[in-house]
Amino acid sequence: MLVKTEAIVLRSIKYGESRLIIDLFTREVGRLSCIVNIPKTGRGRLKKQLFQPLSLIDLECDVRPKVQLQKMRDARMLYPYSSIPFEPGKMAIVMFLAEFLYHALRSEQQAEGPLFDYMSNSFRWFDAADEGYANFHLAFLMHLSNFLGFAPLLSSQGDGCSYFDLREGVFCEVPPLHTDFLQPEESARIRTMMRMDYPTMHLFQMSRTDRNRCLDVVLTYYGLHLPSFPDMKSLPVLQELFV
Fold it and tell me: Domain tally for the chain?
């Protein structure tokens, strides 16, 4: 079946001398893995620059059931980034989020328009932002949990609900019987991150230490809700950003 769809590049790896394996999340069919021939002369329509992490592309692909690597017929840039490729701080965030999404969006993930729109609109906002984006990855990951089905339930919190149960995603008055929970000071980080949105997140002033601790909390939370979620190889670079 010939499919034309918008897509977000999650990962590209070299395969042989002139081919790439591209992992994508698409609007029409969800997760998709394609094999792409990249001409050595650079004259072909499919160039490796199209497949940088989190690139937004339009593609045409021959999708066949039970085939692991689909054949991409054509692709073009949907939204050329104007700042991300040229700012090391933004590129470090993008590399981390691309790796994160590659693991968080399961291989069997089906098409979901609102999820695709959330990611696409978020990356466009990030590209256009001139400043005040140090907390972008925190806000993005916390609100992503809404689409994956395990967002923290803020409505459960009250004045006495100071502990956050990482397994159940709820605030509680007393510590749960298991060990996967946050103490009150750490629980407050969940409330802070869930209040963030892109236009106002610059108002939440954090040191690098605070920001990294918030990210550790988010990764722990995702690790409990997504099976076999690995350690992020790109994390050490991200942790050195934004003093």
Answer: 2
Q: Specify whether 75 is located in the same domain as 93.
A: no
C-alpha–C-alpha distance, residues 106 and 148, integer Å: 10
Q: Report in angstroms the alpha-carbon separations of 159 from 97, 153, 171, 172, 184.
A: 34, 15, 10, 10, 11
Tell me, what's the pLDDT at 115? 95
Please choose, from the candidates 117, 102, 94, 106, the residue with its C-alpha nearest in 3D space to the C-alpha of residue 12. Answer: 102
pLDDT at 37: 85
pLDDT digits (tens, 9 = 90+) for 75-113: 999 999 999 999 999 999 999 999 999 999 987 677 789
Provide the domain limits for residue 131.
85-243
d(CA 39, CA 233) in angstroms, rounded, equals 30
Separation of alpha carbons 177 and 140, rounded Å: 30
170 bridge partner residues: 153, 165
Residue where the block lists tokens 């692991």: 68
List of the chain residues with pLDDT < 50:
156-157, 243
